[in-house]
Amino acid sequence: APAIPAPARAPLPRAALPRHEPADAEAWRVTIAGHRVVLCVTEDDRGQPREIFVSLPREASAFRAAVEGIAQAVSIGLAQGVPLAQYVEAFAYSRIGPGGAVQGDAAIRNAQSVVDWVFRRLAMDYLKRTDLPDPAEAAEPAPRRTGELPLLPMELPAVPSPRRKRGMRAAA
After folding, report:
1. Sign of the CA dihedral 95, 98, 104, 106?
2. Of 25, 39, 127, 164, whose CB count within 10 A is highest?
3. Residue 160: left if φ>0, alpha if ψ -120 to 50, beta else—which one?
4. What is the distance between the alpha carbons of residues 77 and 26, in angstroms, rounded to a whole number?
5. How far is the C-alpha of 140 from the C-alpha of 56, rounded, in Å?
6. Is the pLDDT of residue 139 over 50?
7. What is the helix (H) or strand (E) element at residue 126, kind and residue range?
8. 72-127, pLDDT tens digit by residue?
9. Rounded distance, CA 162 to CA 164, Å?
10. What's the CA gap between 105 and 169, in Å, rounded?
11. What is the mean pLDDT of residues 37-63?
């Protein structure tokens, strides 16, 4: 039987997202642990962020694409009415990419990652939040409960369990 084509769907309406720094955008340029970062934000008529764009000119393509994808997803969400505060709660203090000392931002001196800096910067400027301290000033996470599995591979025992190679038989 011949294949039956699927019915055509109307494309979802959305504004075109910038691939470069828009002329009317607010822009911040910083260096995080030696990595150059440019954050551009276009605002709506109320002065609230409409689109965000993050440029990482000297980063590997996979990391750059991941951060640009996060920015594009956030821009689509903002256009659909998702509050910026929800994105700040989700991404502030996240460890996505390199982190460390921030140069070029007097209010944020240290960041867990590029994504952490972006969302804490947006929170300060657009939500007037002052309750997001630098990571070194933030409270330490609570210790793990007994019996809880480790969160990171580096918390695993230093000595791996012995493994038998497949196909190897003991000599008789």
Report:
1. positive
2. 39
3. beta
4. 19
5. 29
6. no
7. helix 114-126
8. 999 999 999 999 999 999 999 999 888 999 999 999 999 999 999 999 999 999 99
9. 7
10. 62
11. 90
